[in-house]
Amino acid sequence: MAQEYLPAPSNIRLADLMKEHSISQPELAKEIGCSKSTIGRFISDAKGTLTHEQVLKIARLFNVSTDFLLGETNIPDRKNYDIAELGLSVEAAKNLYTWRVNAEVVNPAVHKGQDPGSSQSRKGHQPSEKVGVPR
To answer: Distance between CA atoms of 58 and 106, rounded to whole angstroms?
Structure first.
């Protein structure tokens, strides 16, 4: 089960993540390309703001969702990943989404570096067969 946090505003969430990961304000500022004072103002809630690009960089750095950073959810786990992060082609991702591949073949194929969109992954799969994680 995913870890769940107590409800908190964005500035507290960021401060908690920094403490959890032992990252200082200057280190975070360098990682996301802003000044130390920008981070300091945001954390102290003195009308400091972050750009959407900075929020995305922070989410990637701490491997949390932007919804979590913005206080929309108390569960930090990301639900969506870039196709490239998963090592899949666009065609493979489409085949997974439309249930055109056999899920029993996908896991080992992905771990071995085989594209799940390939004909090898579809071997023995009936088009009407729905396998894998339910939508």
So the answer is: 31
For the chain, what are the domain ranges?
10-69, 83-122
Tens digit of pLDDT at every position of the chain (135 positions): 457 777 788 899 999 999 999 999 999 999 999 999 999 999 997 677 899 999 999 999 998 988 888 887 777 766 666 666 667 777 877 777 676 777 666 666 556 555 545 544 444 444 444 434 444
d(CA 100, CA 118) in angstroms, rounded, equals 11
Q: How remote is the C-alpha of 66 from its chain's centroid?
A: 8
Name the CATH superfamily for 10-69.
lambda repressor-like DNA-binding domains (1.10.260.40)
Q: How far apart are CA 95 and CA 113, in angstroms?
A: 16
At how many degrees (to 10) do helices 52-62 and 10-20 cross?
Answer: 40
- Of 82, 107, 97, 89, nearest to 130 by C-alpha is 97
